[in-house]
């Protein structure tokens, strides 16, 4: 099938209409504007009442979110930051989950004006990884110490659902022997960031063992969306994208990840859009988003807009938006990426983030070796703000009291979707996952840590072990003996034991 014929058959109108409520979208521009305007001067007591609601791990209403978005008083903002961090502690404790991005293809039929991969960027050299290249990339990512990755694809018939499903299988097949030779390390969870798909295609990804399906709406403002995504492209269809996660849920993928590309439009509007999205998923499926991302637009080769948008978000606004998202959707994971500068990333973790990446390379084929990296230096989508190694970032976090987690047990034990939402809301998941965080951190310290990271990590892990030993949280009496047994076996070289 040629490219144009393929493009014409991607969108299925019935898979949009199905999710409209009385023919309407869950994004109502007028309603969002009215909420933001009516809450323009927040009463401090109202703000404090809303913070109490967040602390009881309840999704805030759009109106309550608008109140928080309009706070500018520094003392109140500090109270919000403290509450945001407390929410994070209650739900996720002091864990930070790590992943690596794996860019598989920069072939793309769309023309998003902010992206280096857009089809009308003549400077972009195109490449799609072969299965062998995906294999080599995965080996290099495992050798950094990673256990989960997010594979990223442009939208193109050559990187269709079959290609994506095959790449998931290839990634899962890669195994690397541990330094002790006792076991092997591998990627235990493959998440996907790709274009919206039809239910039939999403089922192929589900069968291949996808972890989370991630699609960013880019902007929730329909008018601005139309300006940035030409109408005669697939991505030009706002609604096809808006209901991507609804279709994923119907396909059986219940860990879905939403996001907005901050810098395309008014940041307060985008936060309102994300919260409306969480509400609609809860309304229609009983499950909110597994994670929310808030990438800030970075300079992209050949894109004028990426550096000159009137809506670029400065650091102060960025901190506020992360804090409000933490408070508004208390159970969700929040992802801050290596797009951000090192010092800002370190700070933003304290606003309630739960996941991040490191050692990231976003060129196509950029992990596997110097030669491929040099050849593909011009195949990047945008510029990264923080190029530090996983080891450096883990050490910094350990010094700050955060334990790195490579845990992927939840999804392999069926703790996804509504089951995990329940545990998160009750604060159980945070405590339970701490056990798996310690087990996977032990693996990392043994296999990959530098001397300095080992030192910082050992201090932290001893503290954690002490805390676990003293906890009275778990009612199942067999749980802690099993945990300590696993811990000793992992320290002796066994791998991939989880609770
Ligand atoms: N092609 C798929 C799509 O558009 O959904 C997935 C891959 S695309 C490379 C992944 C994400 O990169 C986009 O959703 C967009 O938010 C983000 N992105 C694009 N250009 C960017 C830029 N200049 N800076 C930061 N992020 C960008
Ligand atoms: Fe293609 Fe995605 Fe980039 Fe748009 S954002 S040009 S769809 S890769």
Automatic annotation (TrEMBL):
Pfam families according to UniProt: BATS, Radical_SAM
Keywords linked to the UniProt accession: 4Fe-4S, Iron, Iron-sulfur, Metal-binding, S-adenosyl-L-methionine
CDD domains: Radical_SAM
Domain Biotin and thiamin synthesis-associated: 293-404
Needed co-factor(s): [4Fe-4S] cluster
MF-aspect GO terms: 4 iron, 4 sulfur cluster binding; catalytic activity; metal ion binding
One annotated GO biological process: sulfur compound biosynthetic process
NCBIfam families (alphabetical): rSAM_HydG
Stated name of the protein: Iron-only hydrogenase maturation rSAM protein HydG
Species whose genome carries this gene: Odoribacter laneus YIT 12061
């Amino acid at each position: 099938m040629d490219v144009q014929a393929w493009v014409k058959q991607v969108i299925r109108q019935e898979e949009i209409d199905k999710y409209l409520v009385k023919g309407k979208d869950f994004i109502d521009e007028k309603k969002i504007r009215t909420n933001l305007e009516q809450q323009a001067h927040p009463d401090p007591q109202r703000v404090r009442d809303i913070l109490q609601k967040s602390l009881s791990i309840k999704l805030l209403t759009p109106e309550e979110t608008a109140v928080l978005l309009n706070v500018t008083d520094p003392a109140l903002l500090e109270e919000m930051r403290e509450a945001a961090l407390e929410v994070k502690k209650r739900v996720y404790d002091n864990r930070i989950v790590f992943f690596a991005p794996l860019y598989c293809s920069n072939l793309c039929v769309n023309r998003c004006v902010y992206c280096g991969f857009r089809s009308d960027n003549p400077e972009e050299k195109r490449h799609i990884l072969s299965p062998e290249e995906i294999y080599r990339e995965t080996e290099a990512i495992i050798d950094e110490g990673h256990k989960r990755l997010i594979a990223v694809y442009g939208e193109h018939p050559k990187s269709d659902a079959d290609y994506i499903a095959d790449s998931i299988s290839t990634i899962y097949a890669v195994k690397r022997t541990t330094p002790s030779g006792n076991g092997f390390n591998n990627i235990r969870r493959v998440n996907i960031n790709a274009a919206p798909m039809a239910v039939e295609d999403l089922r192929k990804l589900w069968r291949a063992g996808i972890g989370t399906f991630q699609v960013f709406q880019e902007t929730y403002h329909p008018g601005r969306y139309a300006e940035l995504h030409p109408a005669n492209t697939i991505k030009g269809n706002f609604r096809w994208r808006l209901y991507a996660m609804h279709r994923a849920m119907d396909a059986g993928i219940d860990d879905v990840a939403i996001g907005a590309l901050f810098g395309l439009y008014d940041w307060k509007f985008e936060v309102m859009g994300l919260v409306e999205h969480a509400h609609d998923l809860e309304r229609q499926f009983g499950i909110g988003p597994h994670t929310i991302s808030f990438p800030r637009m970075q300079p992209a080769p050949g894109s004028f807009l990426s550096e000159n948008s009137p809506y670029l978000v400065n650091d102060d606004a960025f901190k506020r938006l992360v804090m409000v998202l933490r408070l508004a959707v208390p159970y969700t994971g929040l992802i801050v990426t290596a797009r951000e500068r090192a010092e800002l990333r370190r700070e933003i973790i304290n606003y309630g983030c739960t996941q991040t990446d490191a050692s990231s390379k976003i060129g196509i084929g950029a992990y596997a070796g110097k030669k491929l990296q040099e050849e593909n230096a011009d195949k990047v989508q945008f510029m990264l703000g923080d190029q530090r190694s996983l080891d450096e970032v883990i050490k910094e976090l350990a010094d700050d009291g955060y334990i790195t987690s490579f845990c992927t047990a939840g999804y392999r034990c069926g703790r996804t979707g509504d089951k995990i939402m329940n545990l998160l809301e009750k604060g159980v998941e945070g405590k339970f996952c701490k056990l798996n965080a310690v087990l996977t951190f032990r693996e990392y310290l043994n296999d990959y840590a530098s001397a300095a990271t080992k030192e910082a990590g050992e201090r932290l892990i001893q503290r954690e072990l002490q805390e676990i030993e003293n906890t009275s949280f778990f009612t199942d009496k067999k749980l802690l003996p099993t945990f300590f047994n696993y811990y000793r076996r992992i320290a002796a070289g066994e791998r991939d034991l989880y609770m």
